């Protein structure tokens, strides 16, 4: 399956890393909400899809997980992850999440932080994750919110208009699912937009029981640390799902 590996583009990777090192919305908004859903991981064996630099994997081991496997398509990301880790309970692999059906072990939990919207076959992935989990295992992930990803921008970076100094986000093309190409550090960044019913039904059709869904919002604390996140108080950039096999 053809898939873009934008994190191995140097200009993109440098821009992304500098954003992440500078109180990003991932750190202030997305990660705290995702970890609240992840909850207790003591003694669990966990697979992280699109693990990036492995920050979450180190945190999961710190929280008592027995073993974490982090996979990512990008060599740049896995190199960083390996450089930053000295735990023998974590294993990193350069691997696409499209290929997880080739893994020959089962996991107690599969997690993913803002990586699944990069792949084309969401329904297929849900089924592959289901097959990799032990009975009662959980799949918990964050994903670009469909209200934020819907507008077809063709390499234009702003998905809003400003009227009387207020940002109004664009929600056209909501039911027109599929590839979105935007400018984010570089031109041509590909992600996939799905509407809400597709995101939920993909999980149900794979056999999962949906336990919780959350939508992101900036807390007052986050806004205090970075005032520009006031725009994320009323507009959700991320959505989270927690489901059980
Ligand atoms: C926004 S980053 C998030 C990284 C990490 N989860 C975090 O939260 O710090 C998205 C990650 O998904 C990875 N990715 C994109 N497509 C992928 C695929 N098909 N298989 C595995 N990883 C993929 C990228 O290389 C990148 O590391």
SSE layout and pairing:
Blueprint: H1 10-20, H2 25-38, E1 45-49, H3 55-62, E2 67-72, H4 75-83, E3 90-94, E4 107-112, H5 122-132, E5 133-144, H6 146-149, E6 160-163, E7 166-169, E8 178-184, E9 186-193, H7 196-206, E10 209-215, H8 220-225, H9 231-234, E11 238-244
Parallel strand pairs: 1-2, 1-4, 2-3, 4-5
Antiparallel strand pairs: 5-11, 6-7, 8-9, 10-11
Explained architecture:
Helices cover 32% and strands 29% of the residues. The chain contains nine helices and eleven strands. The strands form three sheets. A seven-stranded mixed beta sheet has the order 3-2-1-4-5-11-10, sandwiched between helices. α5 (122-132) packs parallel to α7 (196-206). It is globular, with a radius of gyration of 17 Å. It binds S-adenosylmethionine.
What's the quick description here?
This protein is α/β, with parallel strands linked by helices and 245 residues long. It is built from 9 helices and 11 strands. The strands form 3 sheets. The protein has a 7-stranded mixed sheet, with helices on both faces. Strands 6-7 form a two-stranded antiparallel ribbon. A two-stranded antiparallel sheet has the order 8-9.
Keywords, please?
single chain; 245 residues; alpha/beta; Rossmann fold; seven-stranded mixed sheet; two-stranded antiparallel sheet
Query: What low-confidence regions span 5 or more consecutive residues with pLDDT below 50?
Result: none
Q: How many discrete structural domains?
A: 1
- The residue fraction in helices comes out at 25-40%
Order of helices and strands: HHEHEHEEHEHEEEEHEHHE
Total number of helical segments? 9
Whole-number mean pLDDT:
96
Question: What molecules are bound to this protein?
Answer: S-adenosylmethionine
CATH architecture term: 3-Layer(aba) Sandwich
- N-end to C-end Cα span: 27 Å
Cross-sheet strand order for the largest sheet: 3-2-1-4-5-11-10
Number of strands: 11
Q: What name does the CATH topology carry? A: Rossmann fold
> Which radius of gyration do the C-alpha atoms yield?
17 Å
The best one-word shape is globular
The CATH homology group name: Vaccinia Virus protein VP39
Largest sheet: 7 strands, mixed
């Amino acid at each position: 399956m053809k898939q873009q590996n934008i994190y191995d583009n140097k200009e993109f990777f440098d821009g992304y890393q500098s954003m992440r090192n500078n109180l990003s919305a991932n750190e202030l908004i997305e990660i705290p909400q995702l970890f609240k859903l992840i909850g207790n991981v003591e003694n669990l064996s966990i697979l992280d899809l699109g693990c990036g630099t492995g920050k979450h994997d180190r945190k999961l081991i710190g929280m008592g997980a027995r073993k974490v496997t982090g996979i990512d398509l990008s060599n740049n990301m896995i190199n960083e992850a390996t450089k930053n880790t000295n735990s023998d309970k974590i294993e990193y692999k350069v691997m696409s999440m499209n290929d997880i059906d080739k893994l020959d072990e089962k996991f107690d939990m599969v997690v993913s932080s803002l990586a699944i919207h990069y792949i084309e076959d969401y329904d297929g992935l849900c089924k592959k994750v289901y097959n990799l989990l032990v009975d009662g295992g959980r799949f918990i992930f964050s994903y670009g919110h469909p209200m934020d990803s819907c507008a077809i921008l063709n390499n234009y970076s702003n998905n809003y208009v400003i009227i009387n100094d207020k940002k109004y986000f664009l929600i056209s093309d909501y039911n027109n699912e599929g590839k979105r190409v935007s400018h984010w550090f570089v031109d041509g960044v590909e992600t996939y937009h799905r509407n809400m019913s597709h995101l939920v039904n993909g999980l149900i059709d794979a056999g999962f029981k949906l336990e919780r869904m959350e939508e992101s919002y900036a807390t007052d604390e986050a806004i205090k640390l970075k005032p520009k996140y006031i725009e994320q108080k009323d507009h959700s950039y991320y959505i989270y799902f927690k489901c059980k096999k």
